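SEVERITY: medium
COMPONENT: batch folding queue
REPORTER: lab tech (J.R.)

DESCRIPTION
The queue accepted two submissions in a row. Attaching both inputs and their returned structure tokens so the on-call engineer can compare them side by side.

ATTACHMENT 1
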Amino acid sequence: MRTISGIVNSNGSISAGTGDFNVRKESTGLYTITFRPALRRVHGGSVTQIFFSGGDAGDTRDNAVIAFLRNGDMRLKTGNSSGDASDRSFTFVVFGE
């Protein structure tokens, strides 16, 4: 079993992680994460937005969703409480072989 995980800043830069992935910011709120090397099989993945302002931790409609998850990459979208694409920091984890 292999785990790929990380914390990504809203500008697409890597804040922390396992070191076996790259991030490309495609457009507002849209990010592609490439696994190095690719997984032979994906067992699952998860992503969530990190709300950095503290206090009440934001609105539950501020979110991150996985658009696709494949052996070699994943794409995710982050958005604000109005449902619009918005650059947000996030954390992710992917499990596979």
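ATTACHMENT 2
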Amino acid sequence: MDLPAWLTLWALQIAIYHTNGAAFLALDYSGRLRRYKTQPGGNEPPKWDLVRAASMCGVFNYVAVGFPAAIGFELIRWAIHGAGESEESSSLGGVAIQFAFFLLVQDGLHFYLHSLLHR
């Protein structure tokens, strides 16, 4: 079964991000990072209750926000380019317009979703 490219990239992003996070968490619990921490009270490993709460918040954010956003961006791509993979490249002007549109949409979504997810 071939997965769509956007779904594969979404899952790969999550896997890479959390693999790195798990490695740092393991180093934090093993005590190997303690000498590099300079914040007051930062030399103690995090409490499991806080790790669990943050993990559950992250899972909720991926399911309730990240996945629908990935679908939404794919629908926008379909609206611009049509369904399926396209072999044709856009013109330079077309790329500039799409990039400007993407920056406006992405910046606005990032600001509002970032503030929403930190509450």
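NOTES FROM REPORTER
The mean pLDDT is 80.
No errors were logged for either attachment.
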